[in-house]
Amino acid sequence: MILILRPDLQGPSTTLDEIDSIARCHEGVEVKTYEFQGTRHRFTEVHLVGQTSTVPTDPFELLPGVLRVIRVSTRYRMIGRHASDHEAAGFHYNGVDFDQHHVHVMAGLCAVDTREHVDAMFAALQANGLETSRMGAYKPRTSPYDFQGLGATCLPWVFESAGRHGVKVVSMEVTDARHIEEIQGALAQSGNATGVMLQVGTRNAQNFELLKAVGQQREFPVLFKRGMGITLEESLNATEYIASEGNPNIVFCLRGVKSHLGDPHRNLVDFGHVPVVLRQTRLTVCIDPSHSVGRGAVAPDGIPDIFHVTGQGIVAGATGVLVDFHPHPARALCDGPQALLPEELPRLIAYVRTMRGAYEAAVESFRGAPVG
């Protein structure tokens, strides 16, 4: 059972005490309180855990501080959208809002290689007014002989360059809990020049100890990539691991899935699942067209496949695009064939804006329409 308190409730401790007093009358019921700072409101939820099927809702519903009482029928207790009218909160981090109202292009190097390439990429972002990026320092690879990333050695100058170019959030994959401490140390060394969103890659989608570690820290938000070879439900359960450990600031990223179908793309594009994730959860949804397509193919209409699938995700309601760029793709040490050039950034931004406009127009056309 979940009790949702009124948003921005003044003096919630009184209501929490009343809830605890009522709950103690029922044996075997544990009370857990969670607070969420959204981009517009602050939310407090009280979860009653245990044998709650016989616990009446009336005593809680009569409390003036309680907005709604919900008997949970979904397995996603923390991330689930428990009522159709419950607004997804989103979150605010380092001056940037991640929610259903703000669209972000998180462009950058799949794998950091040189200072010059990092500086050139951040300069391109600054020139185009972008505040979010991706930079890979730790790279799990299929072959042990492939480039594994520069690791902690590159972090101080990556963060310094980001801050110098006005980049506020850098999405950076971690593959081990110790990487969190390395990022914390390097950020401090840079004078907290920027912010970091810890990225859980598709290969670690069910690395439960890593999921717990990124969930137990509250300093950084988390971008979770759907597992390439597991079901959507399994991936959502993985994000539930993160949230249940105490960190609700999660972006769920669709990045294509493995199939037996082979070419033409690296993975089977799964961006039709954007509305599914939005319907089932309160998570902000991002897409990764680079790792979905995996190549720089161009359609007969002159539009690259990476642009086309980006449009599919944005029109479906995604508000983030995690995309690979490189100043010299031929020199990239990881996934060069799928990297776009910095000079293509203005066109991608314009394309995303066009697709977002189409989405917003479509939403408006359905407003007030009967459902079902």
What is the number of E strands?
14
Strand order in space, largest sheet: 7-8-9-10-11-12-13-14
Question: Could you state the oligomeric state of the chains shown?
Answer: single chain
Strand-and-helix sequence, N→C? EHEEHEEEEHEHEHEHEHEHEHHEH
Structural class: alpha/beta
Q: How large, in whole angstroms, is the Cα Rg?
A: 21 Å
The gross shape turns out to be globular
Tell me roughly what share of residues is in helical segments. 25-40%
**Amino-to-carboxy terminus distance:** 28 Å
At CATH's second level, what is the architecture of the largest domain? Alpha-Beta Barrel
CATH class type of the largest domain: Alpha Beta
Tell me the fraction of residues in β-strands, as a range.
Answer: 15-25%
Number of separate structural domains:
2
Give the mean pLDDT. 92
Residue windows where pLDDT falls under 50 for at least 5 positions: none
The major β-sheet equals:
8 strands, parallel, barrel
CATH homology superfamily name of the largest domain: Aldolase class I
Number of helices in the DSSP assignment? 11
CATH topology assignment of the largest domain: TIM Barrel
